[in-house]
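Ticket #405: bound-state structure for pyridoxal-5'-phosphate.
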Amino acid sequence: MSYINENFLELQDSYLFSTIAKKVAEYSSQNPDKKIIKLGIGDVTRPIVPACIEAMHKAVDEVATQDGFKGYGPEQGYEFLREAISNEYREKGIDIKLDEIFISDGAKCDCGNIVDIFAIDNKVAITDPVYPVYLDTNVMSGSGKFNKETGKYEKIVYLPVNKENDFKPQLPKEKVDIIYLCFPNNPTGTVLTKEELKKWVDYAIKNKAVILYDSAYQAFITEENIPRSIYEVEGAKQVAIEFKSYSKTAGFTGLRCGYIVVPKQVKGYTKNGEEVELNKLWNRRTCTKFNGASYIIQRAAEAIYTEEGQKQIKENINYYLENAKIIREGLQEAGYEVYGGINAPYIWLKVPDGLTSWEFFDKLLKEYNIVGTPGSGFGPSGEGYFRLTAFATRENTIEAMNRLK
Ligand code: PLP
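RESOLUTION: The complex was predicted; output attached.
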């Protein structure tokens, strides 16, 4: 008999996107003449930029030759890409060595896999609402029972973010060991300043905790004093692991590439209190469970760092940011309370009084033929909020706002 990992039975099925798809399909079939505009998409829509395409073509031709053929590459990623990443950090005055960088096939896997190197006894804190991967992967590895009444897992420390605290998570009252932070945030689109992030770094240093910092949306930052990397904050290299993704930065959601930075100074502890470098554990895990990201894709990622690549990806980001501005301003004109959308492709709005997130979803679909994502799908504190995204075409974005206005 094979016994299962019963932790999986504690996972709550997320009906969020399947329910949305079902409701939209039902409405469309009953109203075939209506043009539905989807502002719920969490995926990029603009094509990969020419600099990356050219780099991939070149790499394909290279591996077609005897001399240029590539088999298994280094599990940690090719040096050419790790060097480009390290140089980008250096330009910001941050010293990250090549052996502190691990190239992967995207941040989702890294955010999920990181639980492997931590004990299940850790007290884990997550912001609420949240990108679901942090929570679910902790549940898979044994983070305890789901409480149907509270809608929360008993062992997880939830840090609510809402308009009352200006979407800034407050330091936990109880001592926690692992803290997931994601800024610019999905789903709220809000950010923390360097000073605000410093409080978390200081907390982690004081409590020997580790911050798992997801900056998948750093390319969308437009304002001064908003850190693009947690390592811009003094002391962070002692306590923070950073997840980066090329998905939203350069449209790699389909190509798949990202990286994780695990500085050598970041330590975990054995039960006996002995210090262990997390970098060593992550390297061991990577070598055992991963055979490296594709050479061709890593060449495409390298091209992001060229002058041409930077210029081209900036144009795409600016396109999405302009959409975000149109949504923000359109919603404000229509009388909504709006958050995010300045340093992120996500706009988070307060649903009108008396409605739940799902009731607002239905209203938007039926009255305006617009699809978004109910905030309650991202966690209990998302109830009463709603997410719109800037990834649709300009034309559809403008039309959606005209309908609402
Ligand atoms: N982190 C956050 C906060 C995200 O929203 C996403 C994707 O939506 C990811 C990570 C996943 O990134 P990747 O495509 O690199 O796996």
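RESOLUTION NOTES: The mean pLDDT is 96.
TICKET STATUS: resolved
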